[in-house]
Amino acid sequence: MRSYSLIAPAKINLYLEIIGDRSDGYHELAMVLQSIDLADQVDLRSLSTDTISVRCAHPQVPESRANLAYQAAALMAAEFSDAFAQFGGVEITIDKRIPIAAGLAGGSSNAAAVLVGLDLLWQLGLTQSELEELGSQLGSDVPFCIAGGTAIATGRGERLSPLPSVDNLYVVLGKYRHLDVATAWAYQTYRANFGNTYVNKQDLTSRAAAVHSSSMVQAIIHEDQVQIGQRLHNDLERVVIPAYPQILQLKETFQNAGCLGAMMSGSGSTVFALCDSEKQAQKVHQQGRMLAQPSDLDLFIARLTSTGVQVMSSNKD
Ligand code: ATP
């Protein structure tokens, strides 16, 4: 039986703008997404039966059909029924290192790893865009998580344009263990509070496309680290921070410690501090640790990375 071990990196949002309501019920977004080297390990092992199973020791991660990794395997089994019949089911084991419900796309990245891994396990030979199309059926962040790196994402987040890599930068991530923000709640609350500022439906695509010429994208193209730090933006802070003031306190602690910039990632509750060096990241981390005593703050240092899902090893037994 063949098996694959894959690395599934987390993402942060360097930029997140909510443009308006789409006719499919989702929000039209304009984002700049960035992979970081804080990652889960996802192992796939062929089974001789026709079952899909998920194992994950983390108490908050379901091992049922609710797991996005399970849903990715079920989608592949439905789309490629001949390969499923030929190669059999799969056991998916997730070593969870990415914080849960943290705005870091942990579940989406696990699903992306299953798509990439099953493509190899079942010898399907899918292209990146075919994998991204499958990913978009599972969740808005899944297509980005496949190739990762630095990218503009518009639409629901599935329309991707690659950007030059900024992988020489570091981040310090802070996440309160008991502060989980539900992504759906954040977007619904934003709509309730700011829906009156949304652009008309016919203007959505062109307004989202304007992110291509935004100051954030220019700063990335010109490798201007200071500007990248200053142009960090996340509309969802407008609803999440008033509900969870600890997030603002953490952001201010990072900013005062001296970093390029600090921002909440996605729908939170993770706050990241963008740093120009490992040394700067260690200084910011130290300040965060002082704030943490005796609270329940988890802190991580990670490096920005130019890759998404990666195969770490493969075995035949
Ligand atoms: P995003 O940034 O895409 O909104 P997130 O980081 O906020 O994602 P996740 O960690 O992906 O959120 O998980 C959110 C919820 O999804 C959790 O409450 C968890 O129960 C469920 N879930 C399902 N599958 C997974 C998975 N493979 N890993 C983590 N959580 C999962």
Note down, in words, how this protein is organized.
The chain is an alpha+beta fold. It has one domain (1-317): Ribosomal Protein S5, domain 2. 37% of the residues lie in helices and 30% in strands. The chain contains twelve helices and twelve strands. The chain has helices spanning 68-79, 81-87, 106-121, 128-136, 142-147, 183-194, 204-209, 215-221, 225-230, 237-243, 245-257, 278-292; strands spanning 2-21, 27-46, 52-56, 90-95, 150-155, 159-162, 170-176, 233-234, 261-264, 271-275, 297-305, 310-316. Strands 1, 2, 3, 4, 5, 6, 7, 8, 9, 10, 11 and 12 form a twelve-stranded mixed β-sheet that branches. A hairpin with a 6-residue loop joins β9 and β10. α1 (68-79) crosses α2 and α10 (237-243) crosses α11 (245-257). It is globular and about 55 Å long. The N and C termini lie close together (5 Å). The model has no long low-confidence stretch (mean pLDDT 96). Bound molecules: adenosine-5'-triphosphate (ATP).
Q: Compute the number of helices.
A: 12
Structural class: alpha+beta
The termini sit apart by 5 Å
Oligomerization state: single chain
Each distinct ligand: adenosine-5'-triphosphate
Radius of gyration: 19 Å
Query: Could you tell me the strand content as a percent range?
Result: 25-35%
Helix content: 25-40%
Q: How confident overall, as mean pLDDT?
A: 96
For this structure, the CATH topology is: Ribosomal Protein S5, domain 2
| Order of helix and strand elements from N to C terminus | EEEHHEHHHEEEHHHHEHHEEHEE
What does the overall shape look like?
A: globular
Number of domain modules: 1
| Model regions low in confidence, pLDDT < 50 over at least 5 residues | none
